[in-house]
Design brief:
By secondary structure, the chain is α+β, with helices and mostly antiparallel strands. Helix content is about 20%, strand content about 30%.
Length: about 675
């Protein structure tokens, strides 16, 4: 199955005061972790004239612009979203428009908006006019291509005709005119345009869930490459000659994915590269946007490795790295001629510094520090950590130990990632740092089923929700208890999405292991989860069935029922907090209602937060602040960490608004046959 599906199916969000121990850093205000960020998301226009970024305008994160040579104080707001922060945006290829996508209260039905930064501000809104390029209710817009050869065009997909499949449109930015290019009756999931904006290839999912890469000929589609539902293959761009395409694949006997070239005319493939260390999957190919030559390839195991393919660029990057010692450098937007780049530098204890880099002139101009008020010196090191699971499988993880405390008998929080077909990466992690500052050790396992470690590791998670995938968390706890790092009587678990499922599975299937648990938008019933998939996830349905179980078969339904925490709700004795967005299109609110009602009816402690203006995770800072404000005393009570005592009035009011009286919750469901804990083979 294509890597894009794994990516789509893959999200984490995460009191009487305790006196700080003398060696611990002070308690860091939670707003410095989760409050509205002052400035982030810098981009540079392709012509190099403007720098843009995100910062609050009238209380909500919006787009701002200044000329490249102006100070930040000269910046003007460009958007005036009031109810939901702008999450991301980009420039049109000709630098005429700023473009962004926005949904409604987390429903993930995105529309596209355009702003002309040269227009004067409206007297009422204080910003230039915003045009809705798509303005459809209940429709999810996808962007397939932003072609350099046609700077006034976006190629987009709309699922207004059939909610499952997106038809292909050409959208003109200057006029908003949309032209239907292809009515999608072939279950196409992505379209590939070459450097001249010619539609050359497409990919679809067939009835078995396999990925098929198709050449687009005048007389129809021609199959040129395919991989099975449990393999990965996808196009990574056209080469510099605009002839062959780069292909990332782990088809057939390959375990670690590699980079190949594919000739669309002959269907011939040629290997380009795989991990020289044979540790991990191919991590990406970075092309010049000026002439499409390969600049470097990358891989990630315990950190990022780059392999440069262009000598001039390598020399420039080595100079850049020398100016930022001890930091991981990330490359962001760049001008069309690549004379100016936006780069950021971060570490596990630094959320980042953003610069404008001129490679030829060897200049590096600091723009801002992300969350500048966050005291970097008080943050904790986050290091790679490996241990063996129940069957001896090596589990890569990250471990954050609270700064200033002895690494013995610490309260521990397991923080499993979402997806589950995703992975935690090295670097700064907000939740890990927040919890560590409160005195907890934090374990983040890349359990089996995580991506990046090869096809065998990914497929080892098939059919293992709540079983060996859960063992991978349990054995991590055991390892830290055995070496004296963790206190067996003070272990908690916090997770979102799949991490929320793992939280519920942890307290349902290993009820004696955890003393506190926080489930954020996690499914409790795998049958109802799969029954309520958004229609536009249809292309991924067979993949989910292959990796979880097929609920349309008796055996699959039995396994899914056994793996559902709801069926073992009577076994839950661990104090539980459940957090949910009312508009979540991925994990329907009934997933949380069901488990809350079941635990309540069993007479065990359960708290419930529901944000009416959120979806799969919280986007609004005030909601995140309310959530962590509730978490702090909850975790302190059962695990013995520390908390920030004061609560600002706006956060207190928001917490009151989203706190649900569990007596009012209905929705408990009985799962027939769910009488035994799902067992792994060990």
């Amino acid at each position: 199955m294509a890597n894009w599906v794994l990516a789509v199916l893959a999200f984490i969000i995460l009191t009487a005061p305790v006196a700080a121990r003398a060696e611990q850093p002070p308690i860091i205000d939670r707003k410095l972790f989760f409050g509205e960020i002052e400035i982030i998301g810098e981009e540079i226009s392709p012509d190099g004239r403007y720098v843009s970024f995100l910062k609050p305008y009238r209380g909500t994160r919006n787009i701002w612009v200044k000329r490249t040579d102006e100070p930040f104080s000269a910046a003007r707001p460009m958007s005036a979203e009031a109810s939901r922060p702008v999450g991301g945006y980009f420039w049109s290829r000709d630098s005429k428009y700023l473009l962004y996508a926005q949904d409604a209260a987390g429903d993930e039905n995105f529309n596209i908006y355009a702003v002309d930064p040269t227009l004067p501000a409206d007297a009422k809104s204080g910003v230039p006019a915003t045009r809705a390029l798509t303005n459809l209710k209940g429709v999810r817009t996808l962007i397939y291509a932003v072609p350099r050869a046609k700077p006034d065009v976006l190629y987009i997909g709309l699922n207004d005709r059939d909610a499952r499949w997106h038809d292909l449109y050409e959208l003109r930015l200057s006029t908003g005119e949309m032209k239907l290019l292809h009515k999608n009756t072939e279950q196409i999931v992505v379209w590939y345009f070459d450097h001249d904006a010619n539609l050359r290839l497409a990919a679809r999912t067939n009835q078995a869930g396999d990925t098929e890469i198709l050449r687009i000929d005048p007389d129809g589609f021609k199959l040129i490459y395919s991989c099975t539902v449990l393999e990965g293959c996808g196009v990574a761009g056209f080469d510099a000659q605009n002839d062959h395409v780069y292909l990332e694949t782990n088809k057939g006997s390959l375990n670690l994915s590699e980079l190949e070239t594919l000739d669309p005319a002959t269907r011939a493939t040629t290997k380009v590269e795989s991990d020289p260390k044979q540790h991990v999957d191919f991590g990406g190919v970075i092309l010049s946007q000026a002439d499409y030559r390969v600049l470097f390839t990358k891989y990630e195991d315990d950190g990022v490795r780059r392999y440069f393919k262009d000598h001039t660029f390598e020399v420039q990057c080595r100079w850049l790295e020398s100016q930022l010692p001890g930091k991981e450098v990330r490359f962001g937007a760049r001008t069309a001629d690549e004379k100016l780049w936006i780069v950021s530098a971060h570490s596990d204890t630094d959320p980042g510094e953003v610069y404008v880099w001129n490679p030829a002139a060897k200049t590096l101009a600091l723009q801002y520090r992300v969350r500048e008020e966050l005291p970097r010196a008080s943050l904790s090191a986050r290091r790679p950590y490996h241990y063996k699971s129940s069957d001896g499988l090596d589990i890569p993880a990250y471990l954050t130990l609270p700064k200033g405390l002895p690494s013995k008998n610490l309260p521990l929080i397991v923080l499993p990632h979402g997806g589950p077909w995703a992975q935690d990466h090295f670097g700064y992690d907000t939740f890990a740092q927040f919890l560590s500052n409160r005195g907890y050790a934090v374990l983040q396992p890349n359990f089996r089923g995580s991506t990046g470690y090869g096809k065998s590791y990914l497929n080892a998670g098939n059919g293992e929700w709540g079983r060996k995938m859960q063992d991978d968390l349990t054995w991590g706890v055991k390892a830290l208890i055995a070496d004296g790092t963790a206190d067996a009587k003070r272990v908690g678990i916090v997770g979102a999405s799949y991490g929320g499922y793992a939280t519920l599975a942890g307290v349902a299937f290993t009820p004696d292991l955890y003393r506190a648990a926080v489930d954020i938008v996690g499914p409790s019933n795998l049958i109802t989860l799969l029954d309520a998939l958004p229609p536009y996830w249809e292309a991924g349905r067979k993949l989910m069935y292959a990796r979880m179980a097929d609920p349309t078969t008796a055996a699959g339904k039995t396994l899914l029922t056994a793996e559902s925490p709801l069926g073992q709700a009577r076994a839950i004795v661990t104090p539980l907090m459940v957090v949910q967005g009312r508009n979540d299109p991925r994990v329907n609110i009934r997933e949380s209602d069901q488990i809350v009602a079941a635990v309540r009816d069993n007479g065990k402690p359960v708290e419930y937060l529901v944000a009416p203006d959120e979806g799969h995770g919280f986007a609004r800072p005030i909601n995140n602040l309310a959530m962590v404000t509730a978490m702090e005393p909850f975790l302190e009570k059962y695990l013995g960490g520390r908390r920030q005592a004061d609560v600002p009035p706006d956060v207190e009011a928001k917490l009151k608004e989203i706190t649900v009286d569990t007596k009012t919750v209905s929705g408990a469901v009985t799962l027939k046959g769910a009488t035994a804990t799902p067992q792994s083979d060990n």
